[in-house]
Automatic annotation (TrEMBL):
Protein name: Organic hydroperoxide resistance protein
SUPFAM superfamilies associated with the record: OsmC-like
Upper taxonomic lineage: Bacteria, Bacillati, Actinomycetota, Actinomycetes, Micrococcales
Family: Belongs to the OsmC/Ohr family.
Organism annotation: Schumannella soli
InterPro entries per UniProt: KH_dom-like_a/b, OHR, OsmC/Ohr_fam, OsmC/Ohrsf
NCBIfam families tied to this protein: organ_hyd_perox (TIGR03561)
Length: 140
C-alpha cells in the first residue's frame, strides 16, 4: 500500500501517564490511566482516542457507502465503544462496539450501508481478524 497521508504522533512521559502530541501541533493531550484500571483518571486515555478516531472514520465510510448504494445517510451518528481487557495469554486486547444511528431509512437499508462501510473503513480493515467489532444498527 502506498500511503496517501501519514499521521505522526509522539508519546512522552510514562505512556499511559504522560502526554502525546501530533507532529503538526494540532493535537496535544495529557494521558492518565482510567480509574477502572487502577489509575487516577482525570485526563484522556488511548482507548478514548481510538474510539474518537474509529467513530469519525467509520462515519465517513458510512456517508460514502450511503452515496454509493443510493441510501440516504443525512441523519446519522456513530458512537464507538472501545473496551480493554486481559487476554488468555496474559496480554491485553480490545473489543469494539459501533453504535450506528440512521434516520429516515429502513432497518434493512441501515444494516446494508453499515456492513458496506465496515468493509471499506480503514479502522475496520485494520482490526478485522484481530479485534472483535460488533455493529449495533438503529433507525429512528
Amino acid at each position: 500500500m502506498e500511503p496517501i497521508y501519514t499521521a505522526v504522533a509522539t508519546s512522552l512521559g510514562d505512556g499511559r501517564n504522560g502526554s502525546a502530541a501530533t507532529s503538526d501541533g494540532s493535537l496535544q493531550v495529557e494521558l492518565t490511566v482510567p480509574v477502572e484500571m487502577g489509575g487516577p483518571g482525570g485526563a484522556t486515555n488511548p482507548e478514548q482516542l481510538f474510539a474518537l478516531g474509529y467513530a469519525a472514520c467509520f462515519h465517513s465510510a458510512l456517508k460514502g457507502q450511503g452515496k454509493a448504494l443510493r441510501i440516504p445517510v443525512e441523519d446519522s451518528a456513530v458512537t464507538a465503544e472501545v473496551g480493554i481487557g486481559k487476554l488468555e495469554n496474559g496480554g491485553f486486547g480490545l473489543a469494539v462496539t459501533l453504535r450506528i444511528e440512521l434516520g429516515g431509512v429502513s432497518i434493512e437499508d441501515a444494516r446494508k450501508v453499515a456492513e458496506a462501510a465496515h468493509q471499506v473503513c480503514p479502522y475496520s480493515n485494520a482490526t478485522r481478524g484481530n479485534v472483535e467489532v460488533k455493529l449495533d444498527v438503529e433507525v429512528g
